Structure formats: structure tokens, C-alpha cells
Amino acid sequence: MARKKTTSKKTTAKASKPFQLPNLKLNRLQEVIVGSALIVVGLLLLFSFISYLFTGAQDQSVLVELGSRSTETKNWISQLGAWLGHTFVYKGFGIPAFSISVLTMISGIFLFATGDKVFSLSRKRISNLWFWGLLLMLWLSIFLGFFHNTNALLGGKVGYELNDFLQDYLGLLGAILVMFFIAIVYVVLRLKLTPELITAYFSKKATEVKEGFENIETTDEESDWEKATVEGNPAPDIDQTTAPATATEEPKNTVELSDDAMQVTVPEEETVPEPVLKKVVAPKDENDIGMEIEQTLDEEEVIDNKANKLVEDFGEFDPTLELSNFQFPPLDLLKDYTKGKTITINEEELQANKDRIVETLKNYKIGIAKISATVGPTVTLYEIVPEAGIRISKIKNLEDDIALSLAALGIRIIAPIPGKGTIGIEVPNQNPSIVSMRSVVASPKFQNAEMELPIAFGKTISNETFVVDLAKMPHLLMAGATGQGKSVGLNAILTSLLYSKHPAEVKFVLVDPKKVELTLFNKIERHYLAKLPDSEEAIITDNSKVINTLNSLCIEMDQRYDILKDAMCRNLKEYNAKFKARKLNPANGHKFLPYIVLVVDEFADLIMTAGKEVETPIARLAQLARAIGIHLIIATQRPSVNVITGMIKANFPARISFRVMQKVDSRTILDSGGADQLIGRGDMLYTAGNELIRIQCAFVDTPEVEKITDFIGNQKAYPDAHILPEYVGEDGGTSIDNNIDERDAKFRDAAEIIVIAQQGSASLLQRKLKLGYNRAGRIIDQLEAAGIVGGFEGSKARQVLIPDLTSLEVFLNEEQNK
Ligand SMILES: Nc1ncnc2c1ncn2[C@@H]1O[C@H](COP(=O)(O)OP(=O)(O)OP(=O)(O)O)[C@@H](O)[C@H]1O
Predict the structure, then answer these.
(1) Both 706 and 772 in a single domain?
(2) Inside any domain, residue 299
(3) Average pLDDT over residues 156-174
(4) Which residues touch 147 (CB under 8 Å, ≥6 apart)?
(5) Is 480 marked within a binding site?
(6) What's the confidence (pLDDT) of residue 479?
(7) Residues 489 and 596 reside in one and the same domain
(8) DSSP secondary structure code for residue 611 in this structure
């Protein structure tokens, strides 16, 4: 989709460009060769034209014989020169034809000297040069056509004919006026000159000239004095103390060499006078005195000018340049589940449901003034307007009774619907339709979304595509009982981003304790994923590594804040815009910063095993990371209060809930019931802090995700995944201290577990002894120091050096007796 977007942008850009050099890719050697070829061609043209001015008349007679070896011409470039001169100067544009040779040479020099790196950035400039150069040539040629009778070579045949054509229709005066008008258009468009600028320029010049005269007068006096002092003579007629009056007024760098009054005066570097606005307030009456008001104008922001110049020369910084050939996945990779099937409106079903609702309410003496239905992909919303005097809470309490009478699950009553004066009853359709990812990605709402991180969740109850900006959320909490569509939801989020963002613009940090859900994204590691230095896999499946990654993200956050502070930007969007506009110097550590999206599946599992160690960095990130482009998506099966703590909840205003089994879970995640009444299979409720929106999540199946990741993974990638800052945890480094007294209280238990399992891993201890990661890590270090387990072996578990429990007993007893 984004590909479409960019191509459409490109075409509009192309259409507005006057002329564009072909986008050839040359290597450096080819550049030098092509560059020199252009220079030679330019020179050949130049010499031919110059020579033609003098020898053209003599060569006129032999023009018909050109091509034969025996033909002799006077042109410096012989037959070719004679032909070129005749074609371009005489039959062409006259003297202005010289610009062709000059333009060719300039292009050649550019390519030869600077290479494609600069050249490709300056293509726009060069194409501009050609466009305006050729236009100027044509204008001059027509203009010189007025003087055709003086010399036919001035404007060439083209100039003469076009001039003649103009004069035939407009007459001499008309033609002159038209030419004058074109010249004005040229000057205004090309040189961006306006009458104001010209007057400003001349008034500036006038003041400069005036100041110049005044300066000459003073410097005349000064130079007399200086001449005298440099020669060692006293200053003529000027007292030593009073002489440098001008010098004190205008400080000079004066070096006193000796007592003999020899002074060498070095004029100060030219200082740019501050532009000053002067205004004189005349005295009100005889007793009043006038006043002169001076106002210094704001200084020009040089940095902007420089940046504008850079942007003019090289264009805006393009972060996607390194993978400029990257292609966004085509829509065909997504399956169209709804092919040929639109939502079927089953009128019988609608009628039957309506009748039952009306009847049930009637049984409770609730009269209905009006009822209408909106059919969604999986649920139909019946909106009723009760008769006057009916209490809303009465209807709300009938949820179960209506569900019973309709014999359906997942009935939800919204009383009243916010913003409408109605009460909503959501009833699941008998034949729900799948919302395919393809249909939401292809929707104009997603395609034209001007968002930083657009996410197409699915379709609302009124069948509208629901697109939100993750950057604005700014973090998302997601819950749902097992099998209700959480993993599909995560895939839909990731797919949306893959369809809209270039690898340079967004990076994912994926935490997947289930080990199977997000593995497919491994293929796009070097395009879209971020990882810790030295870690083999980018997708984190080991809970212990999550802590390091989260802390590393905190470091990244702090670093980004420093960079943003330095650039005086309030958020990542501003910063990147400033960087693209070349207002930030990469030499000062500035670089284009991609968004980072951290996705944590099975958050409850993580909290169970690592507790505070995970919660603290997550809360920190959630509180602070929004401005610097780190966004969290956290999914959990169990939305209990000890998993989704107050601190986490407070920082995740945007929440999604798939079906949960209990009302209390719904309350924990959404702060209200409702999620327990959903029907599952992607039926979800979304809230961004205010009302609840019921959405049918888009369905994207594993084979589709596989196709997308294959498509991206097979393309040229960055050399490595995006590397996060290194984090050395508290447990970093191995303690070689084998101090028995300082051993952990659970040391012996741990040793036994390790020896029984014959596997030296900290996570085993964590599970069996219910320890935090840091403590388990410390015990492993102590076991290593004691010689019970071997050294660290990367991703493999450590070797256990004691074969069984009896040997361990002997080993530890011996150690005690030492
Ligand atoms: N949006 C959807 N549209 C249609 N069917 C869906 C949708 N989402 C999920 N399903 C169905 O529900 C099944 C389970 O979904 P999913 O694997 O996402 O559940 P889950 O909540 O992640 O479960 P678990 O937590 O056990 O991994 C899918 O295989 C699919 O058949």
C-alpha cells in the first residue's frame, strides 16, 4: 500500500518537474569515463562553434561535400566542426547555441569530479540548470532574431523564424512586449526576484556607497596618522592621546611593540553591521525634546539558511536511501476471505431478532418507539428508542433475559449509546463473515492514513475500517482468554506496519515466550527487527533476556532524550523532520531515528518469572518513551490485577480486549464489563480512554504472514538487525569468589536441582526455586566458582561437572572440611 502511496507521490512529483535526468546507476569508474566523455563533447562543441564564427563563411561552399575524406574545411574541428557549427549556430540558435556546449561541460565536470553520490543528489540541480539554460538559449535566440539583418549568425535560423512568426501575428511592438514579458517571467521564476527585492538591493547598495564615502574620509585622516606612526614619526598635528580617537570608537587589534610609540594596527575582521531600524520622534512642543528610537532587527538564522542551501543542493535527507529499492509487500500476498461474499443481510434473521427483542421488552412492560438495525461483519446493532418515561437501567438489567429469548451468546447492551439518544443491543449474526486483512489494508482509510504508525485493526460494527495511530495511543495493552484471537490481533498490527512503513522508519523488538507465535518474523530480522549486541536471535524467547532488552531500551530512551534535547525538539516527529530538512549535523551525533515498537506476548508469564525486574523498566518506558518514539504493545491472557498493576494501567490508556471469561477480567482491562460478553474469534472491544468501540479484528493467517515475511526477507537487507545499546546487568561479569560463607541460602538446594537435571541453567533454578532472575544468576555464578557447573557457553546450558547426588554430597562435605 505504502508502495502505492510512494509511487503516486513520485508521479505527481514527476509531473511537476520540468525536466529530469535519467536515473542511471553508474559505478565510480563509469562515472569518470562518462564525465570525461561529456567534457570532451562539450569542448568539441565549443571549439567548433568558436571556429565557425570565423570560418563558417569559407566552409559554406563545402557543406554539401561533408562526409567525403578529401573534403577540406577551415574549421578547427574540421568536417565535424563545420557541420556542428552549421547545424547548431547557423541553422539552429545562433550565438546562444554556445550554452549547449557549456551545459554539457558543466555536467561532465560534475560527474567526473564528484561522482554519482553527489551527482545523484544534485541531479535535480543539474536538470534545473539544463531546463533553464535551454530556455534562456531559446529566448536569446528569438531576441537576437530582431537583429537578423545585422548578422544572420546572431540568432540563428530558429531565432529568426520564431521571431518572424511572432512579428507576423503581433507586429514588431507586440513581439518586443511579449519577449519582455517572457523575460520578466524568467527572472521572477528563475532568480526569484521581485520589485521589493530589487528596491531593497538598491537601497542597501546606496547606503553602502554612502558609508563608503564616509569611511574614505575618515580613513584618509587615519592613514596619515598610521603612516606617520609606522615610520616611527610622531603623528602629524595629532596628539598621541587623542589621535586614535577613531580607534577607540572602533576597536582595533593594536599591538604595542616598544616604548618608541610604534604601533602596528591590524584592521579588525569585517563585522556584519546589525540591521537597525531608526525612527525619530519629533518634539511635541517647544519645551519637549525629540527622541531617536533604534530597534535592532532579529539576526538571521544562519543555520536555516545553511540547511535550506543543503536541501536545495541535495534535496531532503531520505532515510530510505540505503534500501532505496525496497519493495513493500503487494496486496496479493494476503488472502481475500470475503471474495465474492459481501455481508449478507438475512432479513428473516433481522426480523426474527427484532420481534424477539420487542416481545421480551414488552413482557417487562417496556414500550419501544422506534427500532433500527446496523449490520456489521459479526454483530448486528439494534438501536431502540424506548417510549418516554422508561428507565434506562431497567433495560440494562434485561441483558440476560434478552440473551435467553434470542438464544444467543455475546449480547451486549449499551445504554445509552454515547452521542446518540438511543439504546444499543448488539446481537451476534448467525453467519458471521471474516474480515480479511486484505480488505482493511486495501481500504482507502488505511491507504490514505496520514499517521506515523497506522494500524488497521479491523471493522467496526457499522462495517467501517478502523484505523488508529499507534504513535498517538501511545502504548497498547491487549488481553483476551486463550484462543480468542490475540495472536491474530498481534499479527494484524505487525502486518499493518509492514504494509505502511519502510524498514528505515520502524523497528520491532519482539518478545515471544511461547516461542512459536512470532518466529515467522525472524526472516525480516535484518530489515525490521532490533536486538541486543551479541545476541544471536532477534526474537526474544527467553524471559531472562527480556530484562536486559528492556533495560537496554531504557538506555536507548535516555540517549534519545539527550539527542532530542540537543536538537531542541519535543518529540521524535519534530526531530526527524528537522533531520530530514538537514538542520541537524550528523557530525554531532545526529541521525535519523526509527520508531521502535516493543511487542510482548504473554506478559503475565513474564511478570510471574521476573516480577519487579520487568515491571520497573516497562513502567519507565510506558511513562516516558512516548515522545521519543518507543511504543509498547503488551498482550496477556490473564488480565489479573497482579499482572496489570495500577502503574502499568495508568500508562496504557489504549486497551483492547478480546473475549475474557469473567466480568472481573473485563473490568481489569477495560475498567468496565463487556469483554466477557464478546463472541470470540477476533471479536474485540477497543478503548482509548473514553468510549468502548466494538471491532471485528482483521484475520491474517500464519501462511499469509509467512508469505509477507518471505517477500520482505528475500530482499536486500541491512548488514545486521538494528542494534540496541549494550546493557550490563547487575549480574554482569562472573564472580570467581568461592567464599563458602557468602553463598546464597539456597545454594545447596540449587546444586541438587542442577545435578539431578544435569543442566546448568538459571531459568531452571528460577522455576524450581521460584527465584528472581538476578538471584538465580548469582547462584549459578557461585556454582561455577565452586566447580559444580562449567563456564558460560552462550545460548547452551552450562555443563554440570558432578555426575550424581552422591558425588555432590561427597564434594560438598570435602569442601566443608577444607
Ligand atoms: N479475527 C479473526 N477472525 C476470524 N477468526 C479468528 C480471528 N482471530 C482468531 N480467529 C480464530 O481463532 C483462533 C485462535 O486465535 P489465536 O491463535 O489468535 O488465539 P490466541 O488468543 O492467541 O490464543 P492463545 O493465547 O492460546 O495463543 C484462530 O486460529 C482463528 O481460527
Answers:
(1) no
(2) no
(3) 89
(4) 154, 155
(5) yes
(6) 92
(7) yes
(8) T
3-state secondary structure of 419: coil
Ligand 1 nearest atom to the CA of residue 658, by list position:
21
Region 653-678: mean pLDDT is: 90
CA 79/CA 38 separation, integer angstroms: 20
CB of 492 closer than 6 A to ligand 1?
no
CA–CA separation, 80 and 64 (whole Å): 13
pLDDT of residue 306: 65
* Band of residue 252 on the pLDDT scale cut at 50, 70, 90: very low
Which domain covers residue 104, as residue numbers? 2-191
**Does 317 contact ligand 1 (Cβ within 6 A)?**
no
DSSP string of 592-605, one letter each residue: ---EEEEEES-HHH
Alpha-carbon distance 388 to 378, whole Å? 31
Domain co-membership, 622 together with 755:
no
Give 313 Cα–ligand 1 centroid separation in angstroms: 52
**Beta-strand relationship, 291-296 and 654-657:** unpaired
Which atom belonging to ligand 1 lies closest to the Cα atom of 489?
Answer: 18
* Residue 106 shares a structural domain with residue 136: yes
- The pTM is what? 0.57
Number of domains in the chain: 4
pLDDT of residue 208: 61
**What's the rounded mean pLDDT across residues 84-97?**
89
**In this structure, how many other beta carbons lie within 10 angstroms of the beta carbon of residue 35?**
22
Asked whether the predicted pLDDT for residue 204 surpasses 80, the reply is no
Characterize the bridge pairing of strands 530-531 and 722-723: parallel
Given ligand 1 and candidates 435, 487, 493, 686, which is best to mutate, with the most ligand atoms within 8 Å of its CB?
487
Strands 412-414 and 423-428: antiparallel
Q: Which of the pair, 784 or 631, is modelled with greater confidence?
A: 631
Which CATH number belongs to the domain containing residue 773 in this structure?
Answer: 1.10.10.10
Report yes or no on 142 lying in a domain: yes
Residues in the chain: 818
pLDDT at 586: 82
Same-domain check for residues 504 and 647? yes
Residue-level pLDDT at 318: 78
Question: Is a pLDDT exceeding 70 seen at residue 771?
Answer: yes
Q: What is the pLDDT of residue 123?
A: 65
> Does ligand 1 come within 6 angstroms of the Cβ of 482?
yes
